[in-house]
């Protein structure tokens, strides 16, 4: 590792220390921006002097302060005004758009998890098998590099639908050792923790999303169907008079409150599962 | 004793000046970055923006990246990842149509503020003399 690479790594470590306690997504973004700037500056300056470049960029503590200050404004802009709950108590989730967004995520998560699992089982495991005999190792490095972008993609969905602060920059290796190309590059990607963690995420996402689908999405749509059943039944009988299932309109006073209660229950479950999945995403999609 | 007090006074003045400069530049960095992107004929990556920014300002370059992220989140700039010949892919920024409109309004507001502040400062200086 060259002096400049060591200096960059030292600077990034100082920046990480200065950002301690901040959301992991924000730290990853700040490290990505800083690393890109320092690498570009070193590559484009005629007589690169790391100390001068770092001095122009600012002390890690000052840079960290800028990120923390701007983060508040950005989050406020992205999430809008602070939510005001007009109703408290059991029925609170009915009036909280976040609960419906969580149901939306769980609805989307299942087909996505099938794609993730296929990517993991068909591509990841095949490459892993080839790596055992050595020929698959460059492919494994490429697979782990692509996993950083899978993490970024999934992170953006989690961020917009579940409200967790996720990185807006991919979690690439801290410093790539170009001196021993291509081995340095391959080793750097093999050491990227986010690549391995995302691989685990793509493997466990299918069972998790199946659980979410059954517990939350199933109950949500069953509740909606229960609420509307007497009305829908009337319409169904108009088109199919021979239909044997008969839920008469006078069931509405009973079906409606029962449906509202089970819908609220499904939204409570959505909030709890959202908390669980945000923790999983934080642990596995951020370096 | 007297020297120590003077030194403390200078430190206090320096602290106040630094705080004032920080407050002044916090809003202006966005305006300067929008101006740079508005003038640019092609998409610029972070370091190119930093270089142009430095010609116009004494602010540390580390301050511009969080502001760029903020402008991107507010959809005032567009960001696209492109591969580069040297090193990892870069993020290229361009100003959006919304960004251009916001910049035009902010520029008008800035020029009016600048003129207003200058009038007051010069007016007072003339009155003092």
Give structural notes:
- The complex is a heterodimer of chains A (287) and B (129).
- Chain A is mainly α and 287 residues long.
- Among the domains of chain A are: 1-80, no CATH class; 212-264, no CATH class.
- Chain A is 75% helix and 0% strand.
- In chain A, helix 6 (137-162) crosses helix 9.
- Chain B has 129 residues and is mainly α.
- Chain B has a single domain, classed as Winged helix-like DNA-binding domain superfamily/Winged helix DNA-binding domain (Arc Repressor Mutant, subunit A, Orthogonal Bundle).
- Helix content of chain B is 71%, strand content 11%.
- The model of chain B has no long low-confidence stretch (mean pLDDT 82).
- The radius of gyration of chain B is 19 Å and the shape is globular.
- Chain B starts with a helix and ends with a helix.
- The chains are: A mainly alpha (287), B mainly alpha (129).
- Chain A binds chain B through residues 29-30, 33-34, 36-37, 39-41, 43-44, 56-58, 62-63, 66-67, 69-71, 73-74, 77-78, 168, 172, 176, and chain B through 26, 45-47, 50, 54, 60-63, 65-67, 69-70, 73-74, 86-88, 90-91.
Features:
heterodimer; A: 287 residues; mainly alpha; 0% strand; B: mainly alpha; Arc Repressor Mutant, subunit A; 3-stranded antiparallel beta sheet; 4 helices
Tell me the distance between the termini of chain B. 35 Å
Number of strand segments of chain A:
0
CATH class group of chain B: Mainly Alpha
Order of helices and strands of chain B: HEHHEEH
Q: Mean pLDDT of chain A, rounded to whole units?
A: 84
Counted by DSSP, the helix tally of chain B is 4
State the secondary-structure class of chain B. Answer: mainly alpha
Number of domains of chain B: 1
According to CATH, what is the topology of chain B? Arc Repressor Mutant, subunit A
User: So what's the oligomer here?
Assistant: heterodimer
Global morphology of chain B: globular
Order of helices and strands of chain A: HHHHHHHHH
Overall pLDDT metric of chain B: 82
Largest interface: which pair?
A: A-B, 28 and 22 residues
Task: Note poorly predicted spans of chain A.
Answer: none
Which blocks of ≥5 consecutive residues of chain B have pLDDT under 50? none
């Amino acid at each position: 590792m060259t002096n400049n690479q060591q200096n960059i790594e030292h600077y990034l470590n100082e920046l990480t220390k200065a950002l301690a306690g901040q959301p992991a997504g924000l730290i990853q973004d700040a490290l990505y921006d800083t690393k890109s700037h320092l690498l570009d500056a070193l590559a484009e300056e005629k007589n690169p002097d790391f100390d001068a470049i770092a001095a122009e960029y600012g002390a890690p503590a000052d840079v960290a302060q800028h990120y923390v200050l701007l983060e508040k404004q950005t989050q406020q802009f992205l999430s809008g005004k602070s939510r005001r709950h007009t109703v408290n108590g059991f029925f609170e989730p009915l009036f909280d758009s976040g609960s419906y967004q969580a149901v939306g995520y769980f609805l989307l998560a299942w087909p996505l998890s099938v794609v993730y699992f296929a990517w993991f089982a068909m591509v990841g495991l095949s490459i892993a098998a080839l790596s055992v005999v050595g020929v698959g190792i460059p492919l494994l490095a490429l697979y782990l590099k692509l996993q950083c972008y899978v993490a970024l993609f999934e992170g953006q969905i989690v961020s917009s639908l579940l409200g967790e602060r996720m990185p807006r920059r991919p979690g690439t290796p801290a410093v790539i050792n170009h001196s021993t190309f291509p081995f340095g590059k391959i080793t750097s990607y093999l050491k990227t923790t986010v690549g391995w963690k995302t691989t685990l995420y793509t493997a466990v996402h299918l069972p998790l999303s199946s659980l979410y689908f059954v517990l939350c999405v199933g109950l949500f749509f069953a509740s909606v169907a229960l609420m509307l059943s007497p009305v829908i039944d009337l319409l169904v009988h108009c088109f199919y008079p021979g239909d044997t299932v008969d839920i008469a309109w006078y069931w509405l006073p009973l079906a409606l409150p029962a449906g509202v209660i089970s819908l609220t229950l499904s939204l409570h479950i959505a909030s709890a599962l959202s908390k669980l999945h945000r923790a999983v995403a934080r642990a596995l999609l951020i370096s | 004793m007297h020297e120590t007090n003077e030194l403390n006074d200078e430190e206090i003045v320096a602290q106040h000046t630094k705080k004032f400069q920080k407050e002044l530049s916090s809003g202006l960095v966005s305006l300067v970055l929008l101006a740079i992107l508005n003038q640019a004929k092609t998409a610029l990556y972070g370091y190119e923006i930093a270089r142009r920014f430095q010609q116009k300002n004494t602010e540390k370059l580390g301050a511009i990246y969080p502001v760029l992220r903020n402008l991107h989140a507010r959809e005032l700039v567009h960001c696209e990842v492109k591969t580069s010949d040297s090193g990892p892919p870069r993020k290229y920024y361009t100003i959006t149509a919304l960004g251009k409109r916001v910049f035009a309004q902010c520029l008008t507001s800035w020029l009016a503020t600048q003129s207003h502040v200058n009038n007051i400062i010069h007016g007072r200086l003339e009155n003092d003399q």
